[in-house]
Design a protein that fits this description.
InterPro entries: PARG_helical, Poly_GlycHdrlase. With about 250 residues, this protein is mainly α. Helices cover about 40% and strands about 5% of the residues.
Length: about 250
Amino acid sequence: MAHVLLPCDLPFWPDVQRHLAQLATCADARHMTHVMASLHDLCCVSLDPDEAGGADHPGFPELQRFVEEGMCEAERTRFLGDTLPRMATRAAELKALKPTGGFLYSLRREEGRFELERSLLASLLANAFFSTFTKRNAKTHPTLQDFRMADFFTHLHKRTHQKKLRTFLRYFETLGSAPGGHVKFTRKVVSGPSLPGWLCSDRPLVPLLVREGAYQAEASVYRMCSCSSVIGGDVLKASTSKVRGPLFLF
């Protein structure tokens, strides 16, 4: 197991909370993106000394343009008056929702089982939207991806990204005031013969039926999703990989 550094673990978390409180009261997209850009600059800390920083991120002007021009009046009013304050409140609750033993993830070839509260997951997603996580790259975090949506906003001129963002926001629109329940994640490591031994084995294979289309939850029925060694692929960036589809089915 390994620990994931959360925004609430950093010394400037009180400053982050002050920014989130401002976001909860924003009345227009210009003010919102101004505060989000300031919050991004505060949290855009990288362990890589060679990584440049300090430049204005191009994602926030695109987000402002989408809210002002891509949303209809009713959609914009609902977002600024209800969804945005709800997301800011969720993000600010992260420290109170953080597991006692810290937020962990399983390492490669290491089995693990996690049971996370839905309220914690909502808070993590809200913090990803506001880009409060520290900056990650392949050099500093080879097994963890950058969990910030600032780069995603850069592509909001594309209809595909606009659709994904609307789906993301709909999750918070339909979220109750106190989402109950848990989500379980299990990572299994299959042990067995080596590949040459498996290829030369005379033992019969277990019957397997693959079908396309809609599915229903049944015993011994699994949903297959395209995946890679890095789960999620570039879903929070250009979002061109095959992995991106199921991750926006809220």
